[in-house]
Amino acid sequence: MYLYLMKMPAAYQVYSGGRMVTYEHLREVVFGKSEDEHYPLWKSVIGGMMAGVIGQFLANPTDLVKVQMQMEGKRKLEGKPLRFRGVHHAFAKILAEGGIRGLWAGWVPNIQRAALVNMGDLTTYDTVKHYLVLNTPLEDNIMTHGLSSLCSGLVASILGTPADVIKSRIMNQPRDKQGRGLLYKSSTDCLIQAVQGEGFMSLYKGFLPSWLRMTPWSMVFWLTYEKIREMSGVSPF
Fold this sequence. Notes:
single chain; 7 helices
């Protein structure tokens, strides 16, 4: 657990840094806001999905190690031998077994999940916040940031849970010497097997803990991010 907690910040630093830089570049430079500072929803959706794809692709190796090390506790409870002695050993073993490509195992469902989660998180926060500022008496302050982050956490959980289930199954499946999965050929194959074998609601296994995790994370992230921008003399998000 200690090793997992030590590894988790690195994964989120790469992921969050990549997605925020990408989204703001797309919003300010590529797409651009209108004269009244309004950012059309369709632009926000595309920007959020692209930001998630780029951020998650960069972070895939650290996320892969995180996911696989999370499974070590389950293996220990089942009396199975542990696969990794630590974070560095996990990286080395994955490289030895699958090469550089092995570090990007499961990257397709990973970026699919990230695209949906960020479409929910970034798009919802950006849209709700500016709607409240432009159409209600609320100002661009901590109250508005908190309400917007609550909405973004809920939408991100609804959109991201199915992709998260598929991503975890693909990342944790056994693989052959060439690094190919033995249970699922692709994320689509995993989706079909899950729905046919367990029903549609199997895609929402773990939704409640996901929502309970995502909402506080979203609130802490956005409140902190907005405060850092304010302290740095940068305009609000």
